[in-house]
Design brief:
Number of strands: 11
Radius of gyration: 20 Å
Number of helices: 14
Strand content: 5-15%
Shape: globular
Length: 327
């Protein structure tokens, strides 16, 4: 599958952009474990053009991550164009526009998925950004605002006509947020449309190789994007890829997975500082499937998520590894 001239191979798996998750360290881990392309945390156009340090730092791309996309969001064409030009100077392989974020502080202000209620402005922004930069532009969006306005079939054609090079569709409406099951039926219908010539990337609830294979086979998507299932489990990409290739028993060992989590912790601390780095990594520790199924684990989990020094956190992980994971 190609996006413009970027060849991502057959049945590629992509890491979804996620706020406070897809930092450079995590993106690199996912690439090392088989993700074919990664996306930055989404970047506010307004904050970027105001040169807010915490936002401009999100533009950094380690050469080892590539191919990598920078994702921007905003609600007006002019700031989005200016932000796109700034982001282009960081030399991303792709510039992605976020028309899918459902959270109130974004969608409620008319950005992200909020633009599903103002399609003319969405298209205006898309055309303006495509015209403003030389890097390939893609879009990520949802099925529609709510169950009564699932507009993605028509919208996909309109976005393609604006000049985007690929479209990612999350199989939920904005009103669903992240609740319920992702509906891939309309994603499949978009892909079946003979007028659609750009790659269609499906997103939503892909957690296993069986599901990934079904999304490729049943719905015909060109690529699958994995988001929440990768939090605390960057190895999911290698496991899904190996299993889709027929190596059905493939899985990293518990020791290998624990080493990945330890590396995440250390790199988070090195990148930020000890206290804030540990705070940042707690989301991964809370979500990782590595500790699921351990009897009476709740008190240890609480202690792990309350630890505020590197020594304390590593001591807890040592105890878990030595006494609960039988290694």
């Amino acid at each position: 599958m190609k996006i413009a001239d970027i060849d991502l191979g057959e049945r590629p798996l992509l890491l979804a952009p996620m706020e406070d998750v897809t930092d450079p360290s995590f993106r690199l881990l996912c690439r090392e474990h088989g993700a074919d392309m990664v996306y930055t945390e989404f970047v506010s156009a307004d904050a970027l053009i105001r040169n807010i340090n915490s936002t401009t730092r999100k533009l950094f791309i380690d050469p080892r991550e590539r191919p990598a996309a920078i994702q921007i969001y905003g609600r007006e064409p002019e700031p989005m164009v200016e932000a796109a030009r700034i982001a282009e100077q960081a030399h991303p392989d792709i510039l992605d526009i976020n028309f899918g974020c459902p959270v109130k502080k974004v969608a409620g202000k008319g950005a992200g998925a909020g633009l599903l209620r103002d399609v003319p402005k969405m298209l205006q922004i898309t055309r303006a950004v495509v015209d403003a930069v030389k890097v390939p532009v893609t879009v990520k969006t949802r099925l529609g605002w709510d169950a009564e306005s699932k507009i993605i079939e028509t919208l996909a054609e309109q976005l393609q006509d604006c000049g985007i090079k690929a479209l990612t569709i999350h199989g939920r409406t904005r009103s669903q947020m992240y609740n319920g099951e992702a509906d891939w039926t309309l994603i499949g219908k978009v892909k079946e449309n003979p007028r659609i010539k750009i790659p269609i990337i499906g997103n939503g609830d892909v957690t296993t190789a069986q599901r990934a294979s079904e999304c490729f086979d049943r719905y015909g998507v060109d690529a699958v994007m994995i988001g929440r299932a990768s939090i605390g489990a960057p190895w999911i990409f290698s496991e899904i890829k190996q299993q889709m290739a027929g190596n059905t028993g493939f899985a990293l060992s518990v020791g290998q997975k624990m080493a990945v989590l330890r590396r995440q912790i250390m790199e988070s601390v090195d990148r930020i500082d000890e206290y804030r780095g540990i705070l940042h990594i707690r989301r991964h520790l809370a979500a990782t499937p590595l500790f699921k199924g351990i009897p009476n684990f709740r008190p240890i989990r609480i202690a792990m998520l309350q630890a505020d020094t590197l020594d304390a956190l590593m001591a807890i992980l040592d105890d878990v590894q030595n006494h609960y994971l039988n290694m």
